[in-house]
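Structure ticket #2291
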Amino acid sequence: MSDDKICVGAIGGAYGVRGELRVKSFCAVPEDIETYRPLTSEDGARSFHLALVRPIKNGFAARIAEVSSKEEADALKGERLYAQRDQLPSLPDDEYYHADLIGIEVFDTGGVLLGTVKLVQDHGAGDLLEIQRPGSSETVLLPFTIAAVPTVDLGAGRIVADPPDGLF
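Resolution: structure written out below.
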């Protein structure tokens, strides 16, 4: 994926029989996904002009002009939706797009490499950085809080963490 795109949502499949889709928004304000038109597939080969119809459980019912049947909607199940970075709002200094954190090396306050951010997870109680240990497939979940992660330097591609005792 290129650095000029950010994943803002995903298609969950058909909603009904007339071509509506279930869409999950990853935006801070979920309804904003509709304003970042056109959305694209990860490789940029497909373009989607998304129109939200109504809220549903865990997302929205939406329409895409090119989709007119349940079968066409089901064929898009799992498709991730990307917006151009310049379409998205600027973030305050202490907020980050998850895509910008993935792949960054994490060091402890003494300069020892703890691993690389593999994924950013949010289960409702706050973000967690899934950090893959160096030379291993083992991962550790680190709370993404000021106390546990005092420094994020995107320019240097480096995170400094002060993990709770016993975590690493």
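Closing remark: The chain has a mean pLDDT of 91.
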